[in-house]
Amino acid sequence: MDIGFIGLGTMGSRVAQNLIKAGHHLRVWNRSRGATDALARLGARPVVSAREAFSGDAVFSMLADDDAVRSVIGELLDGAPKGLVHVNMATISVRLARELGEQHHAHGLEYVAAPVFGRPELAATGKLTIVAAGDKAAIARVQPQLDAVGQRTWPMGDHPEHANVVKLAGNILLAAAVEAMSEVSAMAWRNGVATADLLDVLTNGVFTAPSYQMYGAAIAERRYDPPGFRLALTLKDVRLALAAADVVGVPMPLASVVHDALLEAVANGDGDRDLAAVARVAMRRAGAENGSKAA
Known about the structure:
Elements: E1 2-6, H1 10-21, E2 25-29, H2 33-40, E3 45-46, H3 50-53, E4 58-61, H4 66-73, E5 85-88, H5 94-106, E6 110-113, E7 116-117, H6 120-124, E8 128-132, H7 136-149, E9 150-155, H8 160-190, H9 195-206, H10 210-221, H11 231-247, H12 253-267, H13 279-285
Helix pairs in contact: 5-8, 8-10, 8-11, 8-12, 8-13, 9-10, 11-12
């Protein structure tokens, strides 16, 4: 299949690599050239504009946020080939997802929202969890490509924004789990219990989900760089979830607590570090200098 790919950040570049490995011809575009050059060595064809990538049988995009999606994708719908399937894997607002579905339909294009769960190491091995929503026939057309980058695709119906609701809900749970582990680690540290010992029990004996284990190990080892899921992006997603809740009048007090902890982490210079760095906030509140003392 002839596929365009737009947005080759930490996750997007790994998704693109797996599409190349599956035998697809990729035209790739990114604002910076480094990522496209790396993929060219694997057989992709770099193009000089996003419009050149927004063609063929399908186009995948994985841009950072609403602003990036609006500024790049919004300019490409006019003149795009009719029937093109656009698979948007970015985590964006529910409102924008709904707008994109309507705009693509008005231009005779198919729009599939397919945000993913998983860190870069899972993306590299094609083991992402994909949540997809949109026209069933359009999803079926790109299912082989989704299978090449994910371990399972969970369908969420005909409304693209439903996939983004699920993604934001999942990221709230993830951020809340990391905040909870951070708080109990600070409590245990003040009571003389080593963080590594505490989290070994909790993540390997009680809460054995991969997310707990992965982030628990990062907290215990104070391993915040390089980021697998940048803390500032988590804050962005929590804000999007709170906005979606506000529109429909749903209180989310726990999400608000998590938001404040993430905001405090960003204010203290940890926005570009991994989500696990929110543990520094809990330790700082517990009296550890610079939030870094944990045994």
